[in-house]
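User: My advisor asked me to double-check a structure prediction for Potassium channel protein before group meeting. I don't want to rely on an old file, so could you generate it fresh from this sequence?
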Amino acid sequence: MVRSRRLEARLALPLALVAAVTAVGTVGYWILWRPYGASWLDALYMTFITITTIGYSEPFPLGRTGRVLTMIVGTTGIASLFYVFGIFMDYLVEMGTSGERRKRQMERTVAAMSQHVILTGLGRVGHQAAEELKQAQEPFVVIERDPERVQWAVDQGYVVIEGDATEDETLKLAGVERAKGLIAATGDDAANLFIVLSARALNPDLYIVARSEDASVIPKMLKAGANRVIDPYSIGGRRLASLVLHPAVVDFLETTLRRGGAPISIEDILVTRDSPLVGKTIAELNLNRRYGIVVLAIIRGHETLVSPAAECEFKPGDQVIVMATVEQLEKFVREMEVQEEANRKERLAHEEKGA
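Assistant: Sure, here is a fresh prediction for Potassium channel protein from the sequence you gave:
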């Protein structure tokens, strides 16, 4: 871990000083006591009792030179040991306070976030979900109760809340009321079910995706409020089969869906009541010629219009699946947001006049 590596770096110099003083003292005493038949162990013993201030009697006479050596070894050795002790004490104090300080800092960071994603659980599935969110540059908060995983997440630069995601207070600390999505990715189906239930009660508009390893639990999670329930093993099996049957298609989709550096992207765009798309057809908007955007599908309630016709008209609530380069999509979204905001202000002004 980063913290332990920092401790090792800070201890390198004082420990080297202790080792150097021990070596010099041992060699010095051995040279002084060679005429008395002293061994290396005798010399090391004398160095040890001098540095540690134990103060037993000397194995052999010291003489004037020996006393000078003892003063030097004692002074430098004790100073080096105090140096080591001071660093350890500083490290222990830092460990005692850094957790609380980090907690307050994380809480302040989360308090300033909105429209973010909450990820509960940093196991193998949660770890991969965090990587995907990071690559997509999507703001997210991790909830994890395992201290080692929490420290790993902190080292990665993630915003982390250490706690139990099944508790309402922990979800509130993660900003569940302001979040746009939640991923329940723990390895415990019961915990995920409880997380879904709690999160839905705290935020009725939250989009919730839950992990389930037991097919019998999936209907319960959907009833509890999950929008989607994913079985990692089923998805993994389908992907393996798809890679064998349609490798080119899978590679293309993986490239487009992975936003980090992908030249082409597939995105979904929600048509709001103030959207400039409302009431217009694909042909009227001429999205392909103006922006290079291809409309792949329109999700309207429980109906999905795949490859919609040019005369298909957009309606509020439509979820439009489009494909284009990242730059083309960014340009399109920017222009739509400006027009949508203008339409919203105009609508509000009319409503105020009518009132």
